[in-house]
């Protein structure tokens, strides 16, 4: 098996993917040097009015939301007893683990003194801060995800005993994972509840934590579908019969659930709008953009998902998944960048610099490369022959 | 209390048992301390001389600005505080002619920055000042996101040791019994330092004495839960660049809801999820039992059939072998009796 894969890897060393990835990685390293020698000011467009840019808006907010596939899939499989999702658990856990690891990695660029990132937990705790909660939960959840991932690692290394011990803890880990995810997914939204005067009323709501949590479920399920589609072709030779047999069922199941949850999300967003009585803002420019987000990236994918599931049309479901993923990015960008500081004159608004975009691309590329490295070597898309049906 | 217990538990479960020190100050409130001091700024008295800016620059040993501090043309463009400037005076054109307004940290009673900081780098001091401790700051800049007055500034050009910078109300000078630099230097007494309740009284008196001169509002008395710096003005505050839509809820109040939800999630989720797990497991068990039973039944039926068949087969086989034996016997007998031709016929009839 491993001989075969290395042979494949050698043959295709100069694929377009590898070339582009290399260019991005080199550019990322250059910007890294600039960041840590010249400060944030040297590579970002951040300023005194706009302390958070796309490194928070994309790398952190989107990163965490899109890594929600980990807890949604494992909850569906182990807690809700939907065994057909079993084959999807490992890819989802691996993606989530890498996603969170990269979020932390990317934070190293954004915060002023990254080596102090453990301070809020180990040196002095600001428990009144929602950011404290985010930090604590992300740290704990990263640990949980790592443990959840280790069976694949131990199978690869042939360490049967410890692998079996970890597998026995699956249920406890899954519950812990859902608790921690609920908390930090929602507190990411709650971060913005402290700044009602800076966030446009259409996006500001006391319900922000609930919005973030519910949309993270949509994001998680859509990411699993989306990513399954992406890795289907390049990883096909690694996928075993269980994975392939269940793949379509998983897509249909998640598609159905995503349709419902998106619908629910649309409904609670409306409730939020009505609760704050913000209808009159809908006729403004921000209102138009808000409607685009709500109709184009929430209502439409919900509808598409429903149609796709009814017709058992996987293509439509995949489009819906892509649209939802994009919608999450739009939503997180709206809250952290577009609707944030809306009252500032246009000249003082933030737009990302090339350096910031490069680092974000760098982080994503790094994720894809590591994912490929691990999933072509470890039992992710297939069951390890020694442990077949042993879950 | 609940929340702290929870965090302690989480910490114990995760990484550190000493997560939250029990001696930690109240979780929700930062003040107000009974002795809170502050400054009252009166925009009707300010002449835009920038003396306060100069004093601030000197007593805080800040770097020299791009344009000299006595250059009044600076007032033509609106400015904000930054990492080299803790206070600025801006000029606003109003119906009453130009009005000047000084801006700096307002030293909120319940500071958004202090409530937002996840290492407690900001502290509301008993004398009213909100101070900052760079030795723990991580540089996440959430304090800047949180401050409703957009005051804290960041040293973006520091590669490794950036700090958040803002007015300290001259905390070190206060501790020596001196006045804040700007207050001391103001030639027009547009700035008054004192106990906060005292300042509110002074402000109210001025408004009562000159109702035509002042807008009937002490800015900062209630804004964002109240601030230590307060403002009087002759024109509506929005006209001198101050937002009047901030509301009276303090920052900790704004985030209290989400924070209170935490113990609920931790308490309820595992129970609910455990329940769901039990139900789905039970479902699976019922389904499984049914399957097992079905298989058993099928097996039983199959077994019975097989047995019947076996029986039949056995019977047939027995008959067959019986017949073979008989044939063999017959053959032997025939052979033995070959000579007796007459008997052969009767033998055949018998079988
Ligand atoms: S004005 Fe801003 S920086 Fe100053 S105490 Fe209030 S929240 Fe903190
Ligand atoms: S930048 Fe520093 S002071 Fe501001 S919230 Fe972050 S850690 Fe606290």
TrEMBL record, chain A:
InterPro entries: FDH_cytochrome_b556_subunit, sulf_resp_HmcC. The chain crosses the membrane at residues 12-34, 54-80, 92-109, 129-149, 170-195, 207-228, 249-268, 288-307, 319-342, 354-374. It is found in: Cell membrane. Keywords: Cell membrane, Membrane, Transmembrane, Transmembrane helix. GO terms for cellular component: plasma membrane. It is a multi-pass membrane protein. This is Putative Ni/Fe-hydrogenase 2 b-type cytochrome subunit. It comes from Pseudodesulfovibrio hydrargyri. The gene is hybB_1.
UniProtKB/TrEMBL annotation, chain B:
Residues 37-67, 128-157 form the 4Fe-4S ferredoxin-type domain. Residues 1-17 form the signal peptide. It comes from Pseudodesulfovibrio hydrargyri. Its main location: other. The gene is fdnH_2. This is Formate dehydrogenase, nitrate-inducible, iron-sulfur subunit. Keywords: 4Fe-4S, Iron, Iron-sulfur, Metal-binding, Repeat, Signal. SUPFAM superfamilies: 4Fe-4S ferredoxins. CDD domains: HybA_like. GO terms for cellular component: cell envelope. GO terms for molecular function: 4 iron, 4 sulfur cluster binding; metal ion binding. It is found in: Cell envelope. It comes from the Bacteria. It holds the Pfam family Fer4_11.
């Amino acid at each position: 098996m491993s001989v075969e894969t290395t042979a494949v890897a050698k043959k295709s060393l100069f694929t377009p993917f590898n070339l582009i990835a290399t260019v991005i990685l080199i550019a990322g390293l250059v910007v890294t040097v600039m960041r840590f020698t010249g400060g944030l000011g040297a590579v970002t467009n951040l300023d005194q009015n706009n302390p958070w840019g796309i490194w928070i808006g994309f790398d952190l907010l989107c990163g965490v939301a899109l890594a929600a596939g980990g807890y949604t899939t494992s909850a569906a499989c182990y807690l809700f007893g939907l065994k057909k999702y079993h084959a999807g658990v490992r890819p989802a856990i691996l993606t989530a683990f890498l996603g969170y690891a990269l979020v932390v990695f990317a934070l190293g660029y954004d915060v002023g003194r990254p080596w102090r990132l453990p301070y809020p937990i180990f040196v002095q705790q600001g428990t009144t801060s929602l950011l404290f909660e985010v930090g604590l939960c992300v740290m704990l959840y990263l640990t949980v995800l790592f443990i959840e991932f280790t069976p694949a690692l131990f199978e690869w290394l042939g360490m049967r005993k410890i692998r079996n011990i970890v597998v026995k803890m699956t249920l406890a880990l899954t519950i812990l994972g859902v608790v921690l995810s609920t908390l930090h997914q929602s507190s990411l939204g709650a971060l913005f509840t402290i700044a009602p005067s800076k966030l446009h009323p259409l996006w500001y709501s006391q319900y922000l934590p609930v919005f973030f949590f519910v949309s993270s479920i949509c994001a998680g399920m859509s990411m699993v579908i989306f990513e399954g589609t992406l890795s289907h072709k390049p990883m096909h030779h690694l996928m075993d019969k269980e994975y392939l047999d269940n793949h379509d069922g998983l897509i249909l199941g998640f598609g159905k659930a995503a349709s419902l949850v998106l619908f629910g999300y649309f409904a609670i967003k409306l409730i939020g709008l009505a609760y704050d009585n913000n209808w009159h803002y809908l006729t403004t420019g921000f209102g138009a953009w808000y409607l685009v987000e709500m109709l184009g990236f929430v209502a439409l994918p919900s509808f598409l998902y429903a149609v796709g599931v009814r017709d058992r049309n996987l293509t439509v479901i995949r489009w819906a998944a892509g649209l939802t993923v994009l919608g999450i990015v739009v939503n997180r960008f709206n809250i952290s960048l577009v609707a944030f500081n809306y009252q500032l004159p246009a000249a003082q608004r933030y737009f990302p610099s090339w350096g910031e975009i490069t680092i974000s691309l760098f982080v994503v590329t790094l994720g894809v490369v590591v994912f490929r490295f691990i999933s072509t070597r470890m039992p992710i898309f297939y069951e390890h022959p020694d442990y077949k049906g042993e879950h | 209390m609940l929340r702290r217990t929870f965090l302690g538990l989480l910490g114990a479960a995760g990484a550190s048992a000493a997560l939250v020190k029990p001696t930690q100050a109240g979780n929700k409130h930062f003040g107000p301390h009974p002795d809170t001091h502050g400054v009252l700024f009166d925009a009707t008295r300010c002449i835009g001389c920038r003396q306060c800016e100069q004093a601030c620059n000197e007593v805080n040993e800040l770097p020299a600005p791009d344009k000299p501090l006595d250059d009044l043309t600076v007032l033509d463009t609106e400015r904000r505080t930054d990492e080299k400037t803790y206070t600025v005076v801006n000029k606003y054109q109003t119906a009453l002619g130009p009005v000047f307004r000084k801006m700096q940290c307002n030293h909120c009673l319940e500071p958004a920055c202090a409530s937002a900081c996840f290492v407690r780098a900001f502290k509301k001091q008993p004398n009213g000042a909100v101070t900052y401790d760079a030795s723990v700051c991580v540089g996440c800049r959430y304090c800047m996101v949180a401050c409703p007055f957009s005051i804290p500034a960041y040293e973006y050009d520091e590669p490794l040791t950036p700090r958040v910078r803002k007015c300290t109300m001259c905390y070190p000078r206060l501790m020596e019994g001196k006045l804040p630099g700007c207050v001391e230097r103001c030639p027009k007494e547009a700035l008054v330092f004192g106990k906060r309740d005292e300042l509110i009284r002074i402000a109210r008196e001025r408004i009562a004495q000159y109702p035509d001169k002042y807008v009937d509002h002490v800015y900062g008395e209630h804004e964002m839960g109240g601030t230590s710096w307060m403002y009087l003005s002759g024109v509506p505050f929005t006209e001198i660049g101050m937002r009047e839509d901030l509301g009276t809820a303090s920052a900790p109040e704004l985030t209290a809801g989400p924070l209170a939800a935490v113990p609920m999630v931790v308490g309820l989720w595992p129970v609910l999820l455990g329940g769901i797990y039990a139900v789905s497991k039970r479902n699976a068990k019922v389904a499984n039992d049914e399957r097992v039973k079905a298989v058993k039944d099928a097996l039983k039926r199959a077994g019975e059939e097989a047995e019947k068949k076996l029986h039949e087969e056995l019977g047939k086989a027995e008959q067959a072998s019986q017949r073979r034996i008989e044939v063999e016997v017959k053959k032997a007998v025939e052979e033995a009796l070959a000579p007796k031709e007459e008997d052969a016929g009767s033998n055949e009839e018998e079988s």
